[in-house]
Design goal:
mainly alpha, about 60% helix, flat
Length: about 100
């Protein structure tokens, strides 16, 4: 039986097979679960196994490589930093010309 260490010490991020941070682990598991549910839905819908199996394996492979590349590129907290950067407004616009007109009396 093989042993896979998850933690390397106190105050160190979770690392498993190159994925650094629990966010990427959850992203990987959620994506593979979605691929599996998609495969089940296509199989129950009546599509051929010769079509659904390569589609599921291919999309699962693409998902795994994408998550590993994101982990390698951004590190533990980099994905959250990218999301925060994309959510910030490009500029702040004030379109009310008389903002304090009512307060003057």
């Amino acid at each position: 039986m093989t042993h896979y260490p998850l933690n390397k010490g106190v105050n160190k991020p979770v690392e498993f097979k190159g994925l650094v941070g629990s966010r990427y682990l959850f992203l990987l598991l959620g994506g593979l679960g979605g691929v599996f549910l998609g495969y089940i839905a296509l199989y129950v819908a009546g599509l051929s196994s010769y079509l659904t199996l390569p589609l599921a394996v291919g999309s699962g492979f693409c998902w795994v490589t994408r998550v590993f590349s994101l982990s390698a590129k951004y590190g533990e907290h980099g994905a959250m930093k990218q999301l925060a950067k994309n959510r910030q407004p490009k500029r702040i616009v004030n379109r009310t010309p008389h903002l304090f007109k009512d307060l003057k009396g």
